[in-house]
Design a protein that fits this description.
Helix content: 25-40%
Number of strands: 16
Shape: globular
Radius of gyration: 19 Å
Number of domains: 2
């Protein structure tokens, strides 16, 4: 197994943003996105990276950008190492984890779609029988399949925790027409991906999309349908009424929930076994979905 890559610097290039997972470099006409092996849980970047994780995220995002291009345009240009090397030099650390993308104006709302009742949605439902203000039927249990997928936006937090908001609040932030557009696009991409993943034995319980404006055109950006931005469950083990086994970072979240940790920075160091199993789960998700 290769060594994990936490921090990425490219001599001579200015880093415009260092996110929880991605490093972004401005090349003038385009951006260079590089996926590190950092892992965030409960919106805290953990001190222990996950080997191969960045390459899985980059490969899956490229796969889904190609698969969903008929639904919505996206910012992806290329992940070809030779083309990237022509722009920034031959840095082997970038191989398999970097992509050139179009510049756009990111929207200030994260677009979450839920097809199943889990995570913060399940916690809210237990209190109010709603998720982000959407009334749901009585009698649902943890991991229940919802009657139909729902759009549950959230704020974008540079630091700290994102907050779930209602569609009406999203419409105030984005404007009603734009909010309706991204809602419909998010539901459309989720529905397509959910049906495809089902043929590969994976349930996509929920996922997070980000959109941006290229001129006046809405495009899909950032990462898409990865184990970082989605809950992937093995279909053959699905059993409503509790938490599900997963191919995503829920495995790490479940471990962290057993610790005496306040979910504030700094996060705890992960044991070797948790790291190894997390890598295996990410790689299996990639292999199952892309065959």
């Amino acid at each position: 197994m290769t060594n994990a890559l936490s921090h990425i610097e490219i001599p001579g290039l200015k880093k415009t943003r260092s996110g929880k997972v991605r490093e972004i470099f401005d090349l003038g006409d385009v951006l260079l996105f590089v996926a590190s092996d950092r892992l965030s849980a409960f919106d805290v970047v953990l001190p222990t990276p996950i080997p191969e994780k960045g390459r899985v995220l980059a490969s899956l995002s490229e796969f889904w950008f190609a698969k969903t291009g008929h639904i919505v345009e996206n910012h992806f240009i290329t992940s070809d190492f030779e083309q990237i090397a022509q722009r920034v030099g031959r840095h082997e650390s970038l191989r398999g984890r970097a992509m050139l993308v179009r510049k756009c104006q990111p929207l200030a709302v994260e677009c979450i779609v839920r097809g199943y009742l889990s995570g913060s949605g399940w916690k809210e439902y237990q209190k109010t029988q709603t998720v982000c203000g959407i009334k749901l039927p009585a009698g649902l249990v943890e991991s229940s399949k919802l009657p139909e997928a729902i759009f549950t936006p959230s704020t974008k937090a540079e630091t700290g925790h994102d907050e779930n908001i209602s569609f009406e609040q999203a419409a105030v932030i984005l404007g009603a027409p734009l909010a309706a557009t991204v809602r419909d696009l998010a539901l459309g991409v989720y529905g397509f991906a959910r049906d495809y993943a089902a043929t590969r034995g994976i349930i996509i319980a929920d996922t997070k999309f980000e959109f941006g404006l290229l001129g006046d055109k809405v495009i899909l950006i950032d990462e898409v349908l990865t184990p970082d931005s989605s809950r992937f469950w093995p279909a053959d083990q699905y059993k409503p009424g509790g938490a599900q086994p997963s191919f995503d970072k829920q495995y790490v979240r479940d471990y962290l929930e057993t610790l005496d940790w306040n979910k504030q920075y700094p996060g705890p160091v992960l044991p070797d076994e948790i790291v190894r199993r997390t890598t295996e789960k990410y790689v299996e998700a990639l292999q199952r979905l892309t065959a």
